[in-house]
């Protein structure tokens, strides 16, 4: 006879056949710990009752949902099947190397709550996230993967190598290089060229559309006048930092 106690219930099963040496108990509550005892029966007489093990069931697989994203954070929450006893959750994330300038960095954290905001992520990057529940008996199956992009942000660095390449009495031609990939924070859609008479405090802007356009000519300038010129990259989140 196999008897069990735990999870607020108890029961027993009689197993026929002296050669039987295994049996599966069903109807137990996930996450609970059970005391299981086995006693041999012969001619309706019970032998000694021997406790053979204490068994705890691992939690069920978490079900995850995405709550919100910003440029540098992802918030998600999850639940486990009813009856699961959980002591902690492991959240793991990986940055996708196929998007943007990712180097495939990974991270993880262990918490007891059923929601979490992952901080300090990279802008405009795709992350895959999983959650695993655990208790004293072990770990659940890993949740389905949540795949999500962080939002774009304005470039935090200016274009490289801003250079004046030609000057006439009324025009200045300026060239620049790309913003380093790691600082683009999204797809570059164009550039903003800001210029003004040196020391005047007044500026104007020339908009250059297209990520591959890295030159423009500023026209209708005043002869024999010194101008300051700065260039910034633009993406869908806004205008980035101007060169100095």
Name the features.
244 residues, mainly beta, Immunoglobulin-like, 3 domains, 5-stranded antiparallel beta sheet, 4-stranded antiparallel beta sheet, 21 strands
Average residue pLDDT: 90
How does CATH name the architecture of the largest domain? Sandwich
Strand fraction: over 45%
Name the helix and strand elements from N-terminus to C-terminus, one letter apiece.
EEEEEEEEEEEEEEEEEEEEE
CATH topology of the largest domain: Immunoglobulin-like
InterPro entries: FN3_dom, FN3_sf, Ig-like_fold, Striated_Muscle_Regulatory
Organism: Geodia barretti (Barrett's horny sponge)
Protein name: Receptor-type tyrosine-protein phosphatase S
Keywords: Receptor, Repeat
Overview of the structural elements:
This protein folds into 3 domains: 2-56, no CATH class; 63-149, Immunoglobulins (Immunoglobulin-like), CATH 2.60.40; 163-239, Immunoglobulins (Immunoglobulin-like, Sandwich), CATH 2.60.40. The protein is 0% helix and 47% strand. It is built from no helices and 21 strands. Strands 9, 10, 12, 13 and 14 form a 5-stranded antiparallel β-sheet that branches. Residues 58-153, 158-244 form the Fibronectin type-III domain. Keywords: Receptor, Repeat. InterPro entries: FN3_dom, FN3_sf, Ig-like_fold, Striated_Muscle_Regulatory. It comes from Geodia barretti (Barrett's horny sponge).
């Amino acid at each position: 006879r196999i008897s069990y106690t735990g999870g607020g219930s108890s029961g027993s099963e009689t197993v026929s056949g002296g050669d039987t040496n295994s049996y599966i108990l069903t109807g137990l509550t996930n996450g609970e710990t059970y005391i299981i005892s086995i006693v041999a029966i012969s001619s309706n007489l019970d032998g000694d009752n021997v406790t053979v093990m204490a068994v705890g069931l691992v939690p069920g697989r978490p079900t995850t949902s995405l709550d919100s994203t910003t440029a540098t954070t992802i918030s998600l929450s999850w639940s486990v099947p009813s009856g699961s006893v959980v002591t902690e959750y492991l959240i793991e994330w990986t940055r996708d190397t196929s998007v943007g300038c990712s180097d495939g960095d990974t991270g993880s954290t262990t918490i007891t709550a059923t929601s979490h905001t992952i901080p300090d992520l990279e802008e405009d990057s795709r992350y895959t996230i999983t959650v695993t529940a655990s208790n004293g008996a072990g770990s659940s199956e890993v949740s389905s993967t949540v795949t999500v992009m962080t939002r774009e942000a304005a470039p935090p660095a200016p274009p490289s190598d801003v250079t004046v390449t030609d000057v006439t009495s009324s025009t200045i031609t300026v060239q620049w290089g790309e913003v380093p990939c790691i600082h683009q924070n999204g797809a570059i859609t164009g550039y903003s060229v800001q210029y003004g008479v040196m020391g005047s405090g007044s500026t104007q802007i020339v908009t250059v559309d297209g990520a591959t356009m890295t030159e423009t000519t500023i026209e209708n300038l005043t002869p024999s006048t010194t101008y300051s010129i700065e260039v910034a990259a633009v993406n869908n989140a806004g205008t980035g930092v101007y060169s100095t």
